[in-house]
Specification:
The chain is an all-alpha fold and 291 residues long. It has one domain. It has helices at 3-28, 33-53, 62-87, 92-115, 121-130, 133-137, 140-145, 149-174, 180-203, 215-239, 244-251, 256-265, 272-289. Helix 4 runs antiparallel to helix 11 (244-251). The radius of gyration is 18 Å and the shape is globular. The relative contact order is 0.23.
């Protein structure tokens, strides 16, 4: 991985963590995850399309890239909604380490199978070590601390699978050309449509779709859009040239930010088992990334 790709990945990691903490606030306050996603994707899409219009030319296979962007955005939009719903039932200190373990594992498998990412023995050991993280986090004691552990975990797994699938679709799209803004714009449009469809189902058509939202909902949505746009753009820049497995395992460090902020701000429960899980997870990612 060259220095530019590494720096783009680090930027994506930082802003993804901040965006996820905003989503944690939405979940803690019981606000609409669909409305938050609608604003996040919608505002990001408008900005991306604005800059895209200024481009002199598009790749010859821009329609194929746009199709993958739409597919990736739709899948990610659904996963984003489910992720916030999951955070309503389980602590972020429990959610993010499991998400960090399972997501990179799925992407690494996809990277090896679909993109022939070259991984060495040490990196495969890191994959095996990652599987121990849920054992450190999920126990009978945790059930009493969560609002609904089983439901929260089911939503967590669904969200993680969808997010991993979205990333692999994006990487496939870049095989037809490094059109970062095109991929970003189309994916955000699809995410907006997915969130709008969920809003429509929850609240009906017309003004009732947005009548439940207040000023704070709008502010949180705008914050999600700002952090999410920078994170997504940086991630796509890294994905357009880097190995999908290596980019994602580094980006998965985003969980450190919302965990620290949630423990400090919301007094989320933390113990030695969870601290150990974060350490083990970090070690696993280091092994996956090492040459």
């Amino acid at each position: 991985m060259d220095q530019a790709t590494f720096l783009w990945t680090l930027a994506s990691t930082l802003f993804a963590g901040l965006a996820l903490f905003v989503q944690k606030i939405v979940a803690e306050e019981g606000r609409s995850s669909a409305f938050n996603g609608f604003l996040m994707y919608g505002l990001s899409g408008v900005v991306a399309i604005f800059f895209l219009v200024g481009l002199q030319e598009l790749p010859s296979q821009w329609l194929v890239i746009a199709a993958f962007g739409l597919a990736a955005g739709g899948v990610h939009g659904l996963g984003n909604f489910i992720r916030i719903e999951s955070l309503k039932y389980i602590d972020s200190v429990l959610f993010f380490p499991i998400n960090k373990m399972l997501g990179p594992l799925l992407v690494v498998i996809g990277g090896v199978i679909f993109f022939a990412d070259p991984l060495n023995v040490i990196q495969y050991v890191g994959i095996g070590l990652s599987l121990t993280v849920p054992l450190l986090l999920v126990s009978s004691v945790e059930h009493s601390r969560q609002k609904n552990l089983f439901l929260g975990l089911k939503l967590l797994v669904a969200s993680t699978v969808l997010s991993a699938g979205s990333l692999l679709l994006s990487k496939q799209g870049f095989h037809y050309g490094p059109a970062v803004l095109l991929m970003l714009g189309t994916s955000q449009i699809a995410g907006t449509c997915a969130s709008a469809a969920i809003l429509l189902k929850q609240h009906g058509a017309g003004k009732s779709m947005l009548a439940h939202a207040d000023k704070r909902d709008v502010l949180l949505g705008a914050a999600s859009a700002f952090f999410g746009l920078i994170s997504a753009y940086s991630l796509y820049q890294a994905l357009s040239v880097g190995l999908v497995s290596l980019v994602y395992v580094i980006q998965a460090h985003y969980i450190i930010i919302p965990i620290i902020l949630s423990v400090w701000w919301y007094k989320d429960h933390i113990n030695l088992r969870k601290l150990a899980a974060v350490v083990v997870s970090s070690l696993a990612i280091t092994l996956l990334y090492s040459a």
